[in-house]
Amino acid sequence: MKDLKAKIHAVVHERKDPSIKPAYGENTSTVRLLGCIPKGKATLKAWFNNVSYTMGEVAYVKADISNDSKRDIGSMNTVLMREIIIRGRGFNNRHTIKGEVLKNKYPGVKALEKSEQDLPLQLNVAQPTANGNLISCRYWLDIECDISFAPDIEVHMPVEIFAPQPEVSGVILEGWEGALPWQA
Fold first, then answer.
1. Residue pair 76/145 in contact by the 8 Å Cβ criterion
2. CB of 111 within 8 A of CB of 74?
3. pTM (two decimals)
4. Contact 152, 144 (CB under 8 A)
5. What is the pLDDT of residue 88?
6. Does 178 fall in a domain?
7. Phi-psi region of 104 (alpha: psi -120 to 50; beta: other; left: phi over 0)
8. 91 within domain boundaries
């Protein structure tokens, strides 16, 4: 007689880590027309409303822009970036896939004005953040103040995106009436 065997595919979901702090980024830069004529300073401060997110959730980024320059910030752009690293058995066997996942454009800020904006970001991604030995996947958000004829002001912030946690299911036999499912 042979032993009974069963095969089940398991999916391991990384849980949200409560020790993760919300990402914050800040950049102050001198706005230079054509890269050499100074026109004042601009400051971009940005932070997430939450520590981490679940796939499909909307992340709200708060952006505090202080445009003390004589140039308009034409638009605020957000780009969600993803990097997947696949490693082989050796340290040198490594393949990296990097690219844009999502791009949004928001209104800019006039010269010599300040603005605080909410930048909503729909996190419809295919893979959650992962930190495995063979496969890792990380996300970050690039926030750019687009200034025409001048270098952009940028802030880069990491984003933790987790898979939805499965609901715990099981057979509860307490109060069960009738035949069990495998006895029917």
1. yes
2. no
3. 0.78
4. yes
5. 83
6. no
7. beta
8. no
Note whether residue 51 is domain-resident.
yes
- Residue appearing with tokens 């007689």: 1
3-state secondary structure of 99: strand
Start-to-end CA span in the chain (Å) = 26
pLDDT in tens, 10-32: 666 666 666 667 889 999 999 98
pLDDT tens digits along 97-146: 999 999 999 999 999 999 999 999 999 888 888 888 888 999 999 999 99
CB-based burial of residue 140 (10 Å sphere; 0-12 exposed, 13-18 middle, 19+ buried)?
A: middle
Q: Does 47 fall in a domain?
A: yes
The alpha carbon dihedral of 159, 151, 26, 110 has a sign of: negative
Helices vs. strands in the chain: H and E counts, helices first: 0, 11
Query: Can you say how many angstroms the Cα of residue 145 is from the centroid of all Cα atoms in its chain?
Result: 19
Q: How many structural domains are present in the chain?
A: 1
Which residue type is seen at 87? R
Q: Residue 38 and residue 30: Cα distance in Å, rounded? A: 7
Range of the domain at 117: 24-79+104-127+143-157
